[in-house]
């Protein structure tokens, strides 16, 4: 039996390399879409004719017994992609004829994470069966089950796929639409006459709200007509509301993350104390500390024998504030020894909430945890203090264990005010100002594309201009 969800349910999944099995005996594709629910180009469609996404994050492979496997490395999905849709379709018959149509997600250890079995398929020939989507710095799985009677073409239009034909070097297989670019001009009627009613050409008549054009009509339309149709549908929805129930809210956009995902937890107090936060997931977390007072502030992790670990904070600055990284043991309780000269507040946060390094100027004070997700870049720091500036980083690329961090690498260990420019390796990368008891600014410059060929923040341009047509043509009679 599958550990299944019902239609509409969702559940968190680990931000790791997952395997997804789609059963049974259907054609399978994956669409990588943006926050707007649209692909950026043909390369965002992974199917048997293009079985690997250019980023390498999603790959497709045929299995046995009617199962199709997709490898989804969520850690490698580009930031501009907020959802990965799993699409099932049939060339003959309807999806109700597919026995035990289901999606099952397996974790890095090979165990089932979550699953969904479609029990209400009907006359649809294509369906978004399920999706993985970003939420609160991590990823969730949703059982979708949204079908399309008009097949892949209707699904494609809804998700921004260009259904236009290739340039006309190829033989024309579809007659060009006869609709004129502009409406015909008519002379105004003479005084007293009733103006004649002009019917719009059949090819350009917009469908009634909730009604879809046929597959042939859609495939015969030009790109401009497709855009006009989409605009008309958006306007109709804005004026009259959607014909069907509105889709679930799209997830908040979030940057790539490692470590566990959880709701932030907090504690407060005064002067020296032992802080215990229970019920946390195992793995690295951020500890945000703010102290009001003048004197020494120190923070250490405690092990199960109440022995202090390596110092997280050691500062004599007035009104200390900053963020550092600690690790939650497997039993889920984080214990910290705090020495503080006054009132204090502590928050435990997922690494997903690390501040983002970018080409915009970032200004702060104290130790901090920053996230860089682009390609190789230069990071410029302007430190305006008289004490130590210590900067380390963690290379997250390829690191799939959410309970640990990769090896710590040193970058800067200097004393006094200074401007420092560091060459950063390719992201994703955690940049930690471990000691920085003074105001500072940071920004990136000369950000270069990822080694895969481009910056993940840039729009994708497909290498094969009309790869989507190979996917769509199987839906044509």
What keywords describe this structure?
mainly beta, Jelly Rolls, 4 helices, 29 strands, Lipoxygenase-1, 6-stranded mixed β-sheet, elongated
Could you describe the 3D structure shown?
The model is unreliable at 165-212, 242-255 and 452-465 (pLDDT under 50). Strands 1-10-9-3-7-6 form a six-stranded mixed beta sheet, with no helix packed on it. Strands 2-12-11-8-4-5 form a six-stranded antiparallel beta sheet. It has a five-stranded mixed beta sheet with strand order 21-23-28-25-26, with no helix packed on it. The relative contact order is 0.14. The two termini are 37 Å apart. It contains four helices and 29 strands. The protein is mostly beta strands. Among the domains are: 4-170 and 209-253, Lipoxygenase-1, CATH 2.60.60.30; 262-349, Jelly Rolls (Sandwich). A hairpin with a 5-residue loop joins strand 6 and strand 7 (68-73).
| Side-by-side strand order of the widest sheet | 1-10-9-3-7-6
- What assembly state would you assign to the polypeptide chains in this entry? single chain
CATH topology of the domain at 4-170 and 209-253: Lipoxygenase-1
**Approximate strand percentage:** 35-45%
Classified in CATH, the superfamily of the domain at 4-170 and 209-253 is: sav2460 like domains
The total beta strand count reads 29
In short:
The protein is mainly β.
